[in-house]
Amino acid sequence: MKIVYSHLLNLLEQKPKLEELSELLFQLGHEHEIDGEVLDMEITPNRGDCLSLKGIARDLNYFYQAKELPKSDMTLPALELQFDNKAQDVCPNISFMQIEIEQVPTKYEPYLEAYFANLGINKNNFFTDISNYLAYESGQPTHCFDQSSMQGHFSLAKKKLKTKFKTLLDTEIELTGENLVFSLDDQVISLAGIMGGASTACSATTTQVLVECAYFKPEEILGKARKYNLSSDAAYKFERGVDYLCQEDVLRRFLQIVCDHTKVKSVSLYTEQSKIALADVPYDSAKLNAVLGINITEKEQLGYLSALGFQSGKNITVPAHRSDVDQLNDLAEEVTRMIGYNNIPSKVLALPVMAKKQQRSFEELVGNYLINQGCFEVINNPFTDFEGKEAIAVDNPLDKQRAMLRTCLMNSIRNNVAYNQNRQKDSIKFFEFSDIYKTSGRERRFALAISGRVNKNAKEFNTQLDYAYLKGLVNSICNDILKVQPAYELVSKRGYDFYESLTLNGIEIGGLGKISKDTIDSKVKTSVFACELTIDDLKVPDNNFVPTSDFPASYRDLSYSLSDLEKVGTLTELVNNTTTNHDLLRESFIFDFFQNKKLDILKLGFRFKFQAADKSLTDEEIDEIMDKLISDSMALDGISIEGL
Amino acid sequence: MTAPKDIFLPPLNREIGSRHPINQVKSELTNLLTSFGFCVAEGPEVETEEYNFDKLNIPATHPAREMHDTFYVNNKTHVLRTHTSPVQVRTMLASKPPIAVVSPGKVYRKDDDATHLPMFHQIEGLYVDKNVNFAHLKDLIYKICHSLFGESAQLRFRPSYFPFTEPSAEVDVLFGDKWLEILGCGVVNPKVLDNCGIDSQKYSGLAFGLGIERIAMLKYEVKDIRDFYKSNLDFLRQFK
């Protein structure tokens, strides 16, 4: 809302400088920008009462004394209006004033002229111009019907409609659904509280006007202007709440402005008012101080409130323009605004210390590990166009491409890889943690994708990130962080050239594989390997200290020849099981892997570490375990040890 | 002395990766607030209207509940949470004061331009106990802002409007000659306490919320919020 500094001064007894006024407006919660004399105000949605010069002046009353602008005190005869209000539940208070003037004025008084000139607003016609100005001055919308066009049964009602309606701006809209409308017989003449119609609009020659001034409940107006794509200042004000008792006063001010410009031939007033009682708020000075953590006197509090129009008695009576106030905390906010939020001294807050068990977080440990391996974390939004069986649909999406919630992380992280491949990034290692939401519920997921060169150094630049690299990362997460041996099983999965499911402690939690190239929107041919796991139930065990041994360790190596690559898994499983089952066999790992497809050579070297906690091991003790391992492995098909 | 040949070998540099900058800022804020005594609480992003709006004193007629501001899902039975405040509702319903929680997480609003995204991150805090007041809130906000922007940071408290706090404030911090809005806060609206099964005659509370992207944009001087979510390696590499 834009207001002009000098216009505001007309409603204040004291005349603060613009800078001082600006500072005080910020203190009162009215954020704004200044452009010359114009203050572009951002009024919070609860303060519909401040959407006018009068409203702002009222808020400044404590500091600069607001003054009332003159309104007509003429004795007004009753208007014999055949008006049928069938919507009293949403429009309890409504008044009409019928005015006939001798002639339309040719020029405006300086205050009215300044409104159009200073704010760059186009004039329309005499009565509509007053109506627009009055909304700016008082905050109360009014609507002017050309009296000569008001023939027929005049009513206000909520109607289910499907009809064309031409607004006073000459735009045609189609009214649908239920609308609150003014009608003459069956013809809609105004979309109540939003915009009047062309058929009854005033013109430059109108001399007889029926001015409508009403209180419409905000919930009735809310969203209607947007529904019909109408820019309506009236709707904006009604949505935020207007003074429900001001109708007659506003019409008297309307009449005064008319009288300032031309001679009135006749005037009469029609009023319906069923919402009258002012709201009360229980008041307790000590409790108000307690909300704020200050200690000011009741007199001071009431002084602030009284300046804002609140009346004190047993309770505090709320003025009709403050529909946002209904409890003690609201009054406390009013007092705080008057004092200034910056002027409330702070008090030391010491939160009670609550016992907290520090738990090792899977996500933190995995994240740190992957970062050390050169991986970057990504965050993706959940919107997708993929309509999976379990996908949740967004009822009001931004567009068709974002109409569903993703049911996995893989599509997003695959797109992240493609985005970077298409920008010539040749070493890509991404991971993401996120919730996903399906019709069956929420799951916490982890995804990891790699593609391109291992690293930018002399040894690893020419080595490509491959499935073994990915599986190594996943194995390390399982073995070193979760302390669980993973089990893999080759299964077919859509979108992957090959895919292994991953099982931990007997529960399948996801898998990993090579993503099919045709699913990646990239011209680069480099392979992409990825894994996705459900991690809700993964718990990082506490590190239990095991005393280290000071006795010497012994190492043994075994070099196997394998008939084909598939034997690697079988042999590794045997070695892992043997390691698990023998306390003295502390560690085993593959230290050598050699493959020459042309010569049909495939070799795998294992190293075994033996150590006892309480003694030096003898060769016999070690050989017993090694012999058993050798005989078990030799029993496997396609596996041999050179020299044996 | 003859230099050993080893020192001339090309070093095997290995790049380290990084957390996403938004999660870095989220962690920094979470660590800061937990150091003050807050516990971390998390909750679902697909929420009921009851927890996202009703219990927070956001009436059915509030503009925030319109289809152009809030994402509705599952045939309008649920919403994508518009703030992390429903986590506070869940916490209040499940526990008794004193309560001191922070809830970091993703939130959703129906916006998409250079300064707004349909998904962004917030961290909100709630403290409910006996005799908690606005002066305490100011102390906490000073501590948060001074920790984030330095002891000499100048703050400005402005009245604002949030249905779930009363009085409500927005806090600006002075950067150069410009005040920038940093967070929203207030005394918990007694109606919200009552909605969540806490006797507002006996207890009061304070609450605050920060937009994590906003803090990250200030900290890293990122001008376009969309850069955070392109997953461009050249961008991500700058936050190691």
Please provide a written account of the structure.
The complex is a heterodimer of chains A (644) and B (240). By secondary structure, chain A is of the alpha+beta class. Chain A contains 18 helices and 28 strands. Chain A has a 7-stranded mixed β-sheet, with helices on both faces. In chain A, β21 and β22 (496-504) form a beta hairpin. In chain A, α6 crosses α10 (247-261). Chain A is elongated and about 125 Å long. The mean pLDDT of chain A is 94. Chain B has a 7-stranded mixed β-sheet with strand order 1-5-6-10-9-8-7, sandwiched between helices. In chain B, a hairpin with a 5-residue loop joins β7 (155-159) and β8 (165-175). The model of chain B has no long low-confidence stretch (mean pLDDT 93). At the A-B interface, α11, α13, α14, β16 and α15 of A face α1, β3, β6, α4 and β7 of B.
Radius of gyration of chain B, whole Å? 21 Å
CATH topology of chain B: BirA Bifunctional Protein, domain 2
Counting H and I runs of at least 4 residues, what is the number of helices of chain B?
A: 7
CATH architecture of chain B: 2-Layer Sandwich
The side-by-side strand order for the widest beta sheet of chain A comes to 16-19-20-24-23-22-21
Query: Per the principal axes of the C-alpha atoms, what is the gross shape of chain B?
Result: globular
Which class of chain B in CATH terms?
Alpha Beta
Helical fraction of chain B equals 25-40%
Q: CATH-wise, what's the superfamily of the largest domain in chain A?
A: Phenylalanyl-trna Synthetase, Chain B, domain 3
Strand content of chain B: 25-35%
Largest sheet of chain A: 7 strands, mixed
Which stretches of chain B are poorly predicted, pLDDT < 50 over at least 5 residues? none
